[in-house]
Amino acid sequence: MNAQLIERSLEAVAEQVGDPAALVYRRLFEMAPELQALFVRDKDGSVRGEMLQRAFETILDLVGEGHFARGMIATEWVNHQNIGVPAEQFELFFVAMVETFREVLGERWTPEIDDAWRSVNASVSGIIGRLAHAG
């Protein structure tokens, strides 16, 4: 995984649209409309924004030094299952992020950036897959 490509792509998205939370969640809810009901109390989007920020921090750690990302993904996978989010929909959040970023960046989304994000999603899937088989 190329940490610099991930960082640069996140910076480019922020330069392009500012806070991408509304775009990411719109994409997620298009992909899985039933998830929107889980945010019924998040009237101002602050919960969604916090979740996205934590996802960014986790992804940057995953592609960087790896101090906490695997544990955070594992913990959040369990937490999300406890509120009724199936494993494949937990992973869908990461897919929605990538699709949103690809759309936002348009021609600036290079094959190298795509490969870096595919690697992130493969790592997340691998962590969840190990958890699912262990449980």
What layout of secondary structure does this protein have?
Layout: H1 3-17, H2 21-31, H3 46-63, H4 69-82, H5 87-105, H6 111-134
Task: Characterize the structure shown.
It contains six helices and no strands. The chain is an all-alpha fold. It has a single domain (3-134), classed as Globin-like, CATH 1.10.490.10. The radius of gyration is 14 Å and the shape is globular. The model has no long low-confidence stretch (mean pLDDT 93).
Q: What is the oligomeric state here? A: single chain
**What is the share of helical residues?**
over 70%
Contiguous runs where pLDDT drops below 50 for at least 5 residues: none
The counted number of beta strands is 0
Proportion of strand residues:
under 5%
CATH superfamily: Globins
Radius of gyration: 14 Å
- Mean of pLDDT: 93
CATH topology value: Globin-like
The total domain count is: 1
CATH architecture: Orthogonal Bundle
Largest sheet composition: none
Provide the succession of SSEs.
HHHHHH
What is this structure, in a nutshell?
The chain has a single domain (3-134), classed as Globin-like, CATH 1.10.490.10. It is an all-alpha fold and 135 residues long.
What labels would you give this structure?
75% helix; mainly alpha; Globin-like
